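Structure first, sequence second, as always.
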């Protein structure tokens, strides 16, 4: 399938998170227009609609709807409200599946402060066939045991280097969760140990670089986050950042082909460290699953992948 046949839509209306519970000190009058503009860039998220190509997708599962949110970084009241609004936006899509791909908090202090409200917000998700979650690097640096308990309390199934097979529309689909790469907990082979060669899989992996170590296992499609979309997006160029991913800067956001499968990188809901976004709004992903034909990679693509792998080896 060529990328020309892929369709991506943005909701016309932005979703704005309401003000925090605590009374905030207003900025000086002269700075308020800039303050409002800044708040819009980090609070107004898009529901991005994507036709998601999946290898070996059974015909019965064509058109299944799934949603993804990632990188919440619930560190302030505003972040919690943004999450609550995102949950409402997801429920309006009436998804069959919901995927949560890590970095729910930035650190242990904010995790302890917001863990109860975080669980309550996610408990409102209401997909037809379940919520599936994996850990990100910040979750392990906080306390993923505590976060996992809250996720389970909200009705999510945790996948840590394991898979779960579901049946919908009379056919089967396997959800594979690979643990975080930066925390050195990713074990792709273990995650795929119960997967047969002809199984259709949706792989959840917080960091898109996980594909470097899972490609040989034949994912159907991979859903990731971690990058925050590159934070700054320059038209016709993408993100100027070049230190987050080894796989290539084109994987910082959106739908990109890697070998014989696609990776979708969600831009995330929250911010970390630098509370800015430029041309890179927060995102809720809304997928319609579609079949990816088993066409072979063009020789030029294989050559480019080989060059990229050789460069990676020299840098490690």
């Amino acid at each position: 399938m060529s990328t020309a046949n892929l369709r991506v839509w943005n909701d016309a209306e932005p979703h704005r998170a309401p003000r925090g519970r605590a009374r905030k000190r207003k900025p000086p009058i002269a700075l308020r227009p800039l303050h409002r503009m800044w708040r819009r860039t980090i609070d107004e998220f898009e529901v991005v609609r994507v036709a998601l190509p999946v290898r070996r997708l059974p015909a019965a599962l064509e058109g299944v709807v799934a949603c993804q949110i990632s990188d919440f970084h619930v560190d302030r009241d505003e972040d919690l409200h943004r999450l609550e609004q995102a949950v409402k936006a997801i429920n309006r899509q009436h998804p069959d599946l919901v995927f949560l791909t890590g970095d729910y908090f930035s650190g242990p202090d904010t995790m302890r402060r917001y863990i109860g409200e975080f669980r309550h917000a996610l408990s409102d998700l209401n997909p037809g066939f379940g919520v599936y979650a994996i850990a990100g690097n910040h979750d392990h640096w906080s306390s993923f045991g505590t976060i996992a308990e809250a996720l389970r309390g909200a009705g999510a199934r945790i996948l840590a280097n394991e898979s779960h097979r579901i049946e919908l529309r009379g056919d089967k689909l396997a959800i594979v969760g690979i643990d975080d790469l930066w925390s050195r907990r990713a074990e792709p082979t273990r995650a795929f140990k119960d997967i047969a060669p002809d199984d259709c899989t949706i792989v959840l992996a917080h960091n898109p670089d996980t594909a470097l170590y899972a490609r040989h296992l034949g994912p159907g499609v991979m859903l990731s986050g971690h990058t925050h979309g590159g934070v700054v997006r320059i038209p016709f160029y993408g993100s100027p950042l070049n230190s987050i991913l080894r796989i290539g800067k084109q994987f910082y956001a959106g739908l990109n082909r890697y070998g014989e499968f696609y990776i979708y990188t969600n831009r995330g809901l929250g911010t970390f460290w630098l509370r800015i976004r430029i041309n890179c709004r927060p995102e809720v992903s809304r997928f319609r699953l579609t079949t990816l034909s088993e066409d072979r990679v063009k020789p030029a693509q294989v050559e480019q992948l080989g060059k990229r792998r050789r460069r990676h080896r020299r840098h490690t």
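Margin note: Residues 299-315 form the longest helix (17 residues).
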